[in-house]
Amino acid sequence: MYFKEIFFKGIFAFCAIVSTLALAMICIFLFANAIPTLFSIGVLEFIFGFDWYPLDEIFGIFPMIIGSIYVTALAIFIGVPLGVLSAVYLSQFCPKSLSKFIIPTVELLGAIPSVVYGFFGLVVIVPFLADVFSGVSGKSILAASLVLSIMILPTIILVSKAAIDSVPKSYCEGALALGATKERSVFFVTLKAAKSGILSSVILGVGRAIGEAMAVIMVAGNQVQLPHSVLDGVRTLTTNIVLEMGYATDLHKEVLIVNAVTLFVFILLINASFGLLSKDRR
Asked: Please, are residues 241 and 256 in contact by the beta-carbon 8 Å criterion?
């Protein structure tokens, strides 16, 4: 028994070390290549530059940062309420005979490849937006956000449901005993107790939305410009790397690595912000 404990502790420690080393190697590779390039082209010119002309060695990614923020924020604005409310329904109100069909469907939604979501957006959402808002191509922030909001639903629903399920039933029963309705008990007691897990689902959803490239390429328009409305086309940080890494050479290729570091730092800041928010609310 003692040998088994030592053996499995060793396996767990090995897995943790491998995961940490993988992250450390990625960080070292990215920052070691990016920092010299970033200072050679100018930090402020790169971050706050409005123009992106690789052939003339002009590299400004500010429109792509704004495009990434707009697309991700709108996707979260649409997807989070849908996902959390779906999780509440599945956990607290849905009959078991119905949930055994809905939950596998949600899980299947999470297994669909990104390119399929992009194709769906290209042949359904983009033409729909072009018909509703005449005079636009349909490839826009709104199209990309709608596709991403569908893509993040499985993560938010399943993680939020697990968090709500883990709340002891006595919490809700106590509220019911004090005269609260089932709905008030769920929304003011159970959800409050599960907020940490729900926040984790939102963090995972943000990570999925901001890191997605393939589906966004197909529906976002890919114009390097500052958007003035949700119907304008944009290029995000991820799509810029995917679109240009195939033919980039020399300085252009090194700048795309700096682009990746910017995205990495961006996600790190978002996760840190959510982490601080979670601590403040405990």
From this structure: yes
pTM greater than 0.70 = yes
Angstrom distance (rounded) from CA 226 to CA 111: 33
pLDDT at 204: 84
18 vs 20: CA distance, rounded Å:
5
Q: How far is CA 119 from CA 26, 217, 280, in A?
A: 31, 10, 41
Q: β-strands 58-59, 52-53: how paired? A: antiparallel
SS3 (DSSP) at 167: coil
In the structure, how many helices (H) and strands (E) does the chain have? 15, 2
Alpha-carbon distance of 49 to 57, in angstroms, equals: 12
Question: What is the pLDDT confidence band of residue 278, given thresholds at 50, 70 and 90?
Answer: low
Alpha-carbon gap, residue 124 to 160, rounded angstroms: 29
Q: Concatenated DSSP letters for 83-129? A: HHHHHHIIIIIS-HHHHHHHHHHHHHHHHS-HHHHHHHIIIIIHHHH
Angle among Cα 236, 240, 242 to the nearest 5 degrees reads 120
| pLDDT > 80? residue 282 | no
> In 3-state terms, what secondary structure has residue 252?
helix
